[in-house]
Fold this protein.
Amino acid sequence: MRVPNGSSLQSNNNLTNSGTIIVENGGALTGEVNGKVIYAPSITTESLPEGKVNEKYSASLTATGSDPINWGVTGSLPEGLTLSEKGTITGTPTASGDYLFTVTASNDAGSVSKELTIKVKHVHSYGEPTWEWANDNTAKAIFKCEKGDDTQSLSGIMSSKITKDATCDAKGIRTYTAKVTFGGKEYTATKDIEIPALSCNTSQGNDQPYDDGGPFTRNECGDVFDRWGNLIYDAPDCVVKPKPTTSPQTTLKPENTTETTLDPVETEEPEQSVEPEKTTTPKPTTQASSTPDSDVKVEKENSFGFIWWILGGIGVVIVGIVAYLVIKNNTEDDE
């Protein structure tokens, strides 16, 4: 007896099956049956996992129905994979691609087929990178798959430092370092650039080009700066002196010349030594108190004023002595 797809058979406890009842996929049998009942297979696998080239693969097909269920395949499984009668796909894929095939499940009640797909990805295997350096001293790391079907390019993270100082007699070295991270691993590369020997003749100016990725500048001490303004060489025993902010001539102008030259004359007291008639003598030095038009004129007038002061003092003394002698003579005559 067969219960076809889309049909159902309802039995009772008195139904006795002397043969075999086959329930096809999609058929239904209800109630209790005394005898042999075989259910046709129905594939329940909806999809299969992806595979990777050169990595082991394993997947199992599933189906409902009466055991034993045997499996078969038509079409092309991925290269390196096989399907067992128990419904297990195993092996190691050797080529990438999308593979479409048909699997069939069979038992004593019949068989059923279904199309399935396995996608195999290629796993790239990269070795050490090659480095490409640009004129501005930046670098890129080039990774190539060993099978030659893929290339990856990464820009390096750059840094640099002076590994040998330049001097007046020898060249220096700046070392550039590039770093990338790829596939969970860090890769580095270095490149050395010569720094020209320093010119210790400061009269040549402050801008001497040094082609190390950009112009270098040097001050009058010989200190060298890179294109970013970083000091890369510090000339020994030299300090850049700041330029004067005031005119040197302002410090040469004499101050208070009149006062310093007249002070000694004011302390002389020749007039107080004689009490007789005081004679007023014009003092030519009064002109020195006027404001001179120039520093040179002030010095000359002050010098003449000082001389007149001395001559005036001597004159007063002489007049005093003469007056004293005249008075003395008159006194003697009266006696």
Q: What stands out?
A: Residues 202-213, 247-298 have pLDDT under 50 and may be disordered. The CA atoms of residues 274 and 320 lie 6 Å apart. The helical segments are 257-266, 295-334.
